[in-house]
Amino acid sequence: MTNQVSSVQLPPAPREIGIFEPFIAKQTETLILKEKMLSLTGDSFDIKLISGQPLVRVDGKFRSLSGRKAVHDLSGQHLFDIHKEHIHLHSTYVVDDTKGNKIMEVKSSFKIIGSKATATFTSRNGKSETLVMEGSWLDTSADIVDEASGAHIARIDRKLLKGREIFGGQQTYALIVSPGVDMALMAALCICLDEKNNEH
């Protein structure tokens, strides 16, 4: 099954999309995440490439009202924080840099069928970006689309890993990222979506 996931290829993004240069994918990359594991407040875990190599470390801040999570690179350098903003009509999660400045906002809104999430941020080249998730987070798959070009730059895929690894009732799924796209930022988007899915 791992080989099946590894063989999924996405075309390169129409331009570099992202903030954290060391995490810009040079080829199609597949990250492995566990559903709900992301949302366990206070827990720390690694997000890994399909090869098993850790990509980033996520540290939950125990008993934080906003469920704040700190994300570090493998050397321990603090990259960004993720937390919920409670002042919006629709569920909104933000990614802040180490100085507390907002660098990405993820808003979700429910449609009659499924849900939609929109992420906005400014790439390191200065371009304002809007990414839209097409398909529900709960579906077997969902695409993350660059609104400006219509290009599919990432894909959340559950069916590729269906039954491969169920650990304590947590389903494992794949996040496939196009060349030229920031893997750390796409992982942050998935954490926001997972948090939204597990809101009580």
Automatic annotation (TrEMBL):
<dbReference type="InterPro" id="IPR038595">
    <property type="entry name" value="LOR_sf"/>
</dbReference>
<protein>
    <recommendedName>
        <fullName>DUF567 domain protein</fullName>
    </recommendedName>
</protein>
<dbReference type="InterPro" id="IPR025659">
    <property type="entry name" value="Tubby-like_C"/>
</dbReference>
<dbReference type="Pfam" id="PF04525">
    <property type="entry name" value="LOR"/>
</dbReference>
<comment type="similarity">
    <text>Belongs to the LOR family.</text>
</comment>
<dbReference type="InterPro" id="IPR007612">
    <property type="entry name" value="LOR"/>
</dbReference>
